[in-house]
Amino acid sequence: ATKGLPVETLKPGWFIQLLSVITDPNTAVILMLVGVYGIVFEFTSPGAVAPGVIGTICLVLGLYALDLLPINYTGLALMLLGVVFLIIEAFNPTVVLGLGGVAAFLFGAAMLLRVEGPGFALSWAIIGPAAALTLGLALLSGTYLWAARRNPPRVGGEAMRGQPAEILDWQGGEGHVLALGERWRAKADEPVAAGDSVEVTDISDLVLTVRRRDAGRNGARQ
Fold first, then answer.
1. Dist CA 55 CA 61 (whole Å)
2. CB 79 within 8 A of CB 58
3. What confidence score (pLDDT) does residue 73 get?
4. CATH topology for the 156-217 domain
5. Which residues contact 138 (CB under 8 A, 6 or more apart)?
6. pTM reported for the whole predicted model
């Protein structure tokens, strides 16, 4: 019945072509990773907005793609578990979680799809660098966190000690100084005058104790 009939080729439209790109297994995995990290960055930096918006869109697209693919949910669970381990590693460096996260991610990627064939295979040229980038990001975040824990920032009165200040007005052993761009009440155990450069040595009840900066250096040399 079809013998001799003309053959007409119908090309898919742009929307079908876009869906074919999104439902590629490699694209789906990348979208999932971008989505998870976008939401994590939004939680760690509230108000940034962009990471949360981009992460949510990518996560929804990734879930849509995985819903259309014949995936093994055990593999998906392992991949998500690996990402969770790496996120925890970034905030609480232990090395064990980092290595376990990479192992879980790679094992999950290897068993993610239940069908083998053209169009249903993960490219290790994409999955490998993605895992390495995820591990590197976790290690970098962990390094900064470890450095911050070893050298915590000074706050409150401790942050004021050692700060330079300038005498604004002075009378009878007390007056006002300019420190860190703010006007403070201050007192001193030595004679100072308006315009002198001083150094903060202590703070009590929002009153600074100051001394001459040259006196502090002389004392240090002695």
1. 10
2. no
3. 83
4. OB fold (Dihydrolipoamide Acetyltransferase, E2P) (2.40.50)
5. 86, 87, 89, 90, 98, 101
6. 0.53
